What does this fold into?
Amino acid sequence: MEGFPKGFRWGVTTASYQIEGGAKDGGRGETVWDRFSHIPGNVLHDDNGDIACDSYHHLEEDLDLLKELGVTSYRFSVAWSRIFPKGYGEANEEGVAYYDRLVDGLLERKIEPFLTLYHWDLPQALQDEGGWMNRKTAEHFEMYCSYLFRHFKGRVTHYMTLNEPWVVAFPGHYTGEMAPGIRDFSAALQAAHVLLLGHGLAIKAFREGGYPGEIGITLNLCPKEPLTDSREDCEAAIRHDGYANRWFLDPLFRGHYPEDMWRFYEEQGLSMPEVTEEDGRLVSQPVDFLGINYYNIDFTKEDKSVWPIQFKTGFSAGNAMTHYQMPITPDGLRKILVRVHKDYHPAKIYITENGASYQEHPDRNGEILDEARIDYLHTHLWKVGEAIGEGVPVAGYFVWTFLDDFEWNTGFENQFGLVYVDRKTMERTPKKSFSWYREVAASNGKRLWEK
Ligand code: FCB
It folds into this structure.
């Protein structure tokens, strides 16, 4: 392997609702995740993000830890409801001040901010007006983004509009496993469309404002492979790819939804979103980069009883699993990178998340020797190197995640962090993977093959 290109970004990622806590502090408005997680039965052990890692009150300490980790870049998200508690109107100065401290603290430590504008915590007031099912939300999103572009002009030069719109649309509106917990497939299709419109409007505002820097979007992309060689499972895998990958990649890079899936949904009698040609142009404006979150390959089996998608997934297919029950499939990362490069040609790709969950606690010496996580990160980074060797323009890699955090509907059960957080004292303890990743980043990846 030749190694990683000069200037390759080494980072870690977090998200506001998963680490900040301070749910009622500094004038923050209620979000859909506050509402959802407080309904018994929605989140494992009925956990919620009221306190999470309390990063809202541990900012300096966390910034110092990032410095110690030696990352070049830090990807975090802004909680829309700290800036506009009800989604729009007057900006809330205290909320803005928190992110000023965060951004300035990063810059002082020579760490580049990578700012995600939306990582799932919609202001509840907007949900009350229909949330992502209402086209108006896309306009409110544009206004919120423009406010941040102006405010951080010259200080933040890397933006992602949305994180994983698929999760917001489908687990959020079809299966109801995630906030806002709606169960209606047509609503999910509508939400997906409005999310994409919001993305398009934000890109347009960024270009028209002439802001320095780059902007893109982050998608969760997993290769979908048939569980068996049967024709049914092969077709199910293609459908799964259309449902989760192409439903976003095609409009973003080709300006229209995939025809096979559109037809399939119509055949199921679903009511489809209203889509104009203008929408297609808006959504497919060029992005400076595509962010890819990768965790595993999804193995897919036809199952006619699941309406309307007619498949099941979540199988190990003989692979070892992480605590989250995700199969460990490093070559899937290389495969998705090569495929996206070949089919969609994004100018640049960042791996904006990749990581593994295990259940860990300090040993008798107070250490956390998380060899399994190191193995996971090592084998996946190796595959990133291979993809670069095959000509894929990967410009950076961000570990999910920095701190053990609130993992959505699985609560605090899944620990992905390079840093352990004691839930009672909030004390942070770097794991062994923390020092390992520091060496990898410091050597621009050479540490991977210089054992
Ligand atoms: C991704 C999310 C992120 C985190 C990881 C495990 O889908 O973007 O917030 O929860 O999964």
